[in-house]
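sry for the spam today, last one i promise. struct tokens for design, 124 residues
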């Protein structure tokens, strides 16, 4: 085993070019994860994570059907609009098309709906 964690032996049958690629790939350090807020709860994500994936990984429903059933992203390319959430105060952001940024605040329909209902009851 080499020092970089590669399990290939020097006499590996895949060839020298593949061994060099293996060495280069295994030598690249992973970026440190950072924190975003999903519905008021801190959540750690890796660099390159979409906001939709972070919502799902945080265990939060993105949207709700007319019957009140939780829904999530469907198409993954911004067409179906099932991934919409409020991101940093901007409503209806298509989260499947956005990468997470450190310190980002994400509110799903669950929290936005609760705030609207609460405001109507208080001011009503």
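last one done:
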């Amino acid at each position: 085993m080499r020092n970089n964690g590669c399990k290939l032996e020097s006499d590996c049958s895949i060839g020298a070019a593949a061994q060099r690629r293996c060495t280069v790939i295994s030598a690249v350090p992973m970026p440190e994860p950072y924190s975003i807020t999903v519905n008021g709860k801190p959540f750690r994500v890796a660099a390159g994570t979409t906001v939709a994936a972070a919502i799902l990984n945080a265990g939060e429903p993105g949207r709700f059907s007319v019957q009140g059933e939780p829904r999530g992203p469907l198409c993954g390319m911004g067409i179906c609009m099932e991934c919409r959430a409020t991101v940093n105060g901007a409503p209806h952001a298509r989260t499947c098309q956005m990468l997470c940024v450190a310190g980002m605040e994400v509110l799903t329909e669950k929290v936005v709906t609760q705030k609207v209902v609460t405001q109507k009851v208080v001011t009503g």
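The first helix runs from residue 16 to 27. ok im logging off now
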